[in-house]
């Protein structure tokens, strides 16, 4: 049942993004920002963690989870270190994913040649 809910919730998040691109004049970049901000707002309201517990990877893999991670890390560090924790918490929680994206992007650029 866990896999079914992950599929449904993850699919709904993707459907929302696709509908925003198909039915409006928003670019993919605009839709991505909207989804990241939605994840951040939902985490700020305390609604995203229960969604992750319910849907698992269906809620933790889509781009909305990045907004969740930013706010969650900032709030967690702010409790321990005050105002400076807001800034350090954002980088601490998301640094592994961002670093991996940069490293794998660089490695791909060494293997593949761009055309143009």
Report on the structure:
The protein is mainly α and 116 residues long. It is built from six helices and no strands. Helix 2 packs across helix 5 and helix 5 crosses helix 6. The N and C termini lie far apart (47 Å). This is Stage V sporulation protein AE. It comes from Effusibacillus consociatus. It holds the Pfam family SpoVAC_SpoVAEB. The chain crosses the membrane at residues 27-47, 54-71, 83-112.
What is this entry, summarized?
It is built from 6 helices and no strands. It has 116 residues and is an all-alpha fold.
Task: State the main characteristics.
116 residues, mainly alpha, 6 helices, 0% strand, SpoVA, transmembrane, membrane, transmembrane helix, Stage V sporulation protein AE
What percentage of residues falls in helices of 4 or more residues? over 70%
Determine the number of helices (DSSP H or I, runs of at least 4 residues). 6
Cα(first) to Cα(last) distance is 47 Å
Order of helices and strands: HHHHHH
Q: Flag low-confidence runs.
A: none
Largest beta-sheet details: none
Name the structural class. mainly alpha
Average pLDDT for all residues: 88
CA gyration radius, whole angstroms: 16 Å
- When the domains are counted, the total is 1
Beta-strand share of residues: under 5%
Shape: globular
- Give the total of beta strands: 0
Keywords: Membrane, Transmembrane, Transmembrane helix
Organism: Effusibacillus consociatus
InterPro entries: Spore_V_AE, SpoVA
Transmembrane segments: 27-47, 54-71, 83-112
């Amino acid at each position: 049942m866990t896999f079914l809910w992950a599929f449904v919730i993850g699919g709904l998040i993707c459907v929302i993004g696709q509908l925003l691109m198909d039915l409006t004049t928003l670019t993919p970049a605009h839709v991505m920002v909207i989804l990241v901000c939605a994840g951040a707002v939902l985490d700020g309201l305390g609604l995203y963690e229960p969604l992750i517990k319910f849907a698992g990877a269906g809620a933790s893999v889509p781009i909305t989870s990045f907004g969740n991670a930013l706010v969650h890390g900032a709030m967690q560090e702010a409790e321990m270190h005050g105002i400076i924790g807001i800034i350090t918490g954002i980088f601490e929680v998301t640094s592994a994913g961002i670093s991996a994206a940069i490293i794998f992007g660089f490695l791909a650029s060494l293997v593949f040649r761009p055309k143009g």
